[in-house]
Design brief:
Elements (H helix, E strand, L loop, with lengths): L10 H9 L6 H18 L3 H12 L9 H6 L7 E2 L2 E2 L8 H24 L11 H7 L21 H17 L2
Antiparallel strand pairs: 1-2
Helix pairs in contact: 1-2, 2-3, 2-5, 3-7
Length: about 180
Amino acid sequence: MIIKAPPRASVNQALAYVLTRKPARANYVAQYIIELWRLCTKLGYDPTVLLAQAIYETTEDGIPFNSKWWIDTLNPAGIGITDDGPQSNLVSISGVISARAHFAHMAGYVEGIHGRSLIGTNYERLDPRWDALKWSGMAGTVSKVEDLGSGTWASQDSAIYSTKIIELVHQIARYG
């Protein structure tokens, strides 16, 4: 599933899908989703993919956006969280900033270090893992969801990680 693609769901479908599940800090979740749709659609990314990733990364007890990292720091996608715990965890002050940081981190994987500057934003400064991504050799190596996992973004096996995200994309797109 290609990440730079038209949206597979509308922002209203996304809001309804998530908010009916009673996430923690729902007002910040709504801010996050609205800003994610604005940024991604403006720059050619499918926001449904990034939202599905956030849902997968933050679901606890069957509730999206219910993880410790979301509740405590508004980290929507495990940015800076490794198997050993937080390395340089994203700490955000709003859902809007969370969306920008998530987008910037994904753009680093998709566009690479030169492509990110072409986006025309300074959002990479919101990404606490930008330098780690830049030096890892993974910047610019991702084009589809199946490229994530197995050490690229997540340590979980890429077949498992990407399958879960793709399933969530389809659920969001069918919602409503």
